[in-house]
Write a structure and sequence with these properties.
By secondary structure, this protein is mainly alpha-helical. The protein has one domain. The chain is built from 4 helices and 3 strands. A 3-stranded antiparallel beta sheet has the order 1-2-3. Helix 1 runs parallel beside helix 4 and helix 3 packs antiparallel against helix 4. The longest helix has 29 residues.
Length: 149
């Protein structure tokens, strides 16, 4: 279900947090599935950052024999997941200050990054993106059922 901008940036940030957690859960499920077919010793990723898990998934996924074009689609999905998790971090680890006209100022938590104005609509757009991402990550499990090592 697509979220609609209601002008509440705090609510939108909440959806970003929740949907990114769903995406991370799907990443963990893929790690668990891959660990069952990885004949080598899969790395201990349980406490790793999502981006490290995604790197493993992409690397191990490239060693598999995929039917049709699914291997390429999986690699593209992993690239999109990594970019999304990086962007998620930018949204969730910043400070927000309300300014006029329904906009907010996003102040980076890291040095040497510029402040920027952002709207609740932009936050909701990213939350919707994360919802689609976690759905696509879930869908990729069905591709894996047809993979051979």
């Amino acid at each position: 279900m697509e979220l609609v901008d209601d002008g509440d940036p705090v609510r939108a940030l909440g959806f970003i947090a929740v949907y990114s957690a769903y995406a991370e859960q799907k990443i963990d499920e893929l790690i668990e599935y891959f660990s069952k077919i990885d004949s080598g010793q899969p790395p201990k990723l349980i406490n790793s950052q999502a981006t490290e898990k995604i790197k493993y998934l992409k690397k191990f996924g490239s060693s598999l024999e995929w039917p049709n074009n699914e291997g390429n689609e999986f690699a593209i999905l992993m690239d999109a997941a990594k970019a999304s998790m990086d962007e998620r971090g930018e949204y969730l680890h910043n400070r927000y200050i309300a300014i006029q006209n329904g906009k907010i100022l996003m102040k980076p938590g890291r040095p040497n990054r510029p402040e920027q104005e952002i709207t609740s609509a932009e936050l909701y757009e990213f939350a919707n993106h994360l919802f689609i991402l976690q759905s696509n990550l879930n869908r990729s499990r069905f591709w894996l059922s047809r993979v051979s090592k």
